[in-house]
Amino acid sequence: MAKDDTAKHTPSREDILAFITRETEAGGPRKIGVREIARAFGAAGDDRIAIKRLLAEMADEGLLEKRGKRVNRKGTLPPVALVDIIARDRDGEMVAAPVEWDEDELGPAPRIRIHAPRRARPGEPLPGVGDRALVRAEPDRDAGPDEPPYVGRVVKLLSRQRQRVLGVLHIEANGAGRIEPIDKKQAGREFAVAAADIGAGKHGDLVSIDLVGKTRFGAPRARVRETLGSVTGEKAVSLIALRAHDIPDVFRAEATTEAERAQPASLHGREDWRDLPLVTIDPPDAKDHDDAVHAAPDNAPDNDGGFVLTVAIADVAHYVTPRSALDRDALERGNSVYFPDRVVPMLPERISNDLCSLRPNEDRPALAVRMRVTSKGRKIDHSFHRVMMRSHAKLAYAQAQDAIEGRTDETTKPLLAPVLQTLYAAHEALRHARNLRAPLDLDLPERKILLKKDGSFDRVIIPPRLEAHRLIEEFMILANVAAAETLEQHRQQLIYRAHDEPSREKVTALSEFLATIGVKLAKGQALRPAHFNVILGRVKGLEHENIVNEIILRTQAQAEYTHENYGHFGLNLRRYAHFTSPIRRYADLIVHRALIRALKLGEGALPEMPVGELAEIAARISAAERRAMAAERETVDRLIAHHLADQIGARFQARISGVTRSGLFVRLAETGADGFVPAATLGREYYAYDEAAHALTSRSGVSYRLADIIEVKLIEAAPIAGALRFEVVSGGERRAPPPRASAKPKDRRPSARAKKNR
């Protein structure tokens, strides 16, 4: 980086913007923050403090986008972006747009002109319109005013034809067909297919279609392009999500062969920890067990009342070596995906459920961390070991909790005094440290769908949150922190699990809402999770508790995997990496390999790779995680819609989960099903949208606000799309309008945020 030629001084706003622009266009450092700016302008001491304060002000004013310690000009793309290829320009070059872009905060999404080779490299298909890809992008200094401001190259094609239309084929008596789209936004719409255009499709098949044309009257016409399998019945409903999101569910032959040929690890090169009474504590239906725990009093004289904690994690790196067929498939999947009726694992069952699963009384290779903590839960030191272990018991969360509360069984009775009581005593120490750390403490119960034997919907339960859950959670968090610290100490590159602080825009919106209920959020200070916890504590047990929890959740940024460390805001940790689940998360496998390399623990180490490659991997697995979350959520929606399809006219208690100009999103209390109430059905009055209060309010003062409890009636169900439409039967409150600085009426046109919320 070249230093600024001007005299050394504290830079102005214009100087900083010019510097960031110049460095970005010149292909300068991937990270620009206080240190880089201070170095460029020769600033030190008080000048550095002034630069830090100025950057915060510029972020508040919307001139810069702040991400951890890194700043960018507002609305700029990261060096590696996940994009959809949306069109070709007049010269035949492809044009892409970023997948994740908040138009509310950043304005219209920028376009990227894609340079594509004339011939594909072996095994690397040429991208086309509709595909999703990872792109390395940079500003195009030669771009004209109407041309894409970025130019990029595809570094990895992730999926083909993202813009294809998927639907379920229904064949009529005359041989013609109709297509019911799976997209919730197209619920109620259909496409007509002539008998000659059905091809090999059968009634109930999931198909992809090409649109042929529109008719003046009747449904648009389509042609079946590809048949993707039968989705007849609820049991196959997860297949829709797999195909819609291009989630691979069949391993390549080479990967399967590698898995089947794998042999159990030997003790050679490992420490023998088989006598240590490690135990696994998991959900009762878990099929793979990748973490085991142990605690013992620390007998060291400098740690009176402290503990030695051990977390042993399945040594997946022993079996899945870098750039092998198993590794390529695991990276493509990114993580395991969990549906109510099936699991799509990241690794073949031979690896995940057999060789790497920490089954009781069986020798298993592991990567273990031993941590010393004080009686108050503060970690003194830690060390990593490559070991051979033997789990002494497989316990369920409720089983462990019952034992501690005096209800032992034949498995837990002999473990109570030597193992479980010490684990819980250590957990008490960790809980003390957690309270001092004050991570974000949202009350968000998790629902779980139970199925009948035939795979159809049975009921929704909310599993109790036990102290055993918190015990394992705190042990895993501490192990993850230890992994990140060790790799940083050895200057070993890694992938972090990072969670940025909320954006200024979202915090401002939260502050505006809190003002409507008489709660203040102090501005102009460094934001910490504790500030949100204070607010949550103030409204606990009051009428605003649910809405405040919901809005604070929406204020948070989304966690991601990244090769740059900007901390974990929600956990209130300076450094954090995923280490504890390499069977089901590729990020954890990268961290295991990095530890093996840094500590010289044998084979399976992370190979030398440029930072750019690690950034690409982080972007890919972050995208895979979000893909899995969307697929899991949509599958639950479809299962419940199937269940409710024959209950048209039934009434349900619901909570308002979202408010837009066009209507209310609601969530049923009994099942957690999501649905929509169009604003036009609320009554004869006109309802104005109050964005700050998250409410629709009529002229007479009747208001429907986020988190309100209402009664609704089911009007329409579209099981294939997972869409439900309701009408309000009762609910809504008369509320005095909050004070406003201006009585100027709001624009009734849908905002970008309202469109996004649909």
UniProtKB/TrEMBL annotation:
Purpose: 3'-5' exoribonuclease that releases 5'-nucleoside monophosphates and is involved in maturation of structured RNAs.
CDD domains: S1_RNase_R (cd04471)
A Pfam cross-reference name: S1
Reactions the enzyme catalyzes: Exonucleolytic cleavage in the 3'- to 5'-direction to yield nucleoside 5'-phosphates
InterPro entries per the UniProt record, alphabetical: NA-bd_OB-fold, RNase_II/R, RNase_II/R_CS, RNase_II/RNase_R, RNase_R, RNR_Ribonuclease, S1_domain
Residue span of region Disordered: 731-758
Domain S1 motif span(s) in chain numbering: 649-729
Protein name: Ribonuclease R
Similarity comment text for this entry: Belongs to the RNR ribonuclease family. RNase R subfamily.
Keywords: Cytoplasm, Exonuclease, Hydrolase, Nuclease, RNA-binding
Cellular location(s): Cytoplasm
Domain of life: Bacteria
Primary location group: cytoplasm
Signal sequence residues: none
EC numbers: 3.1.13.1
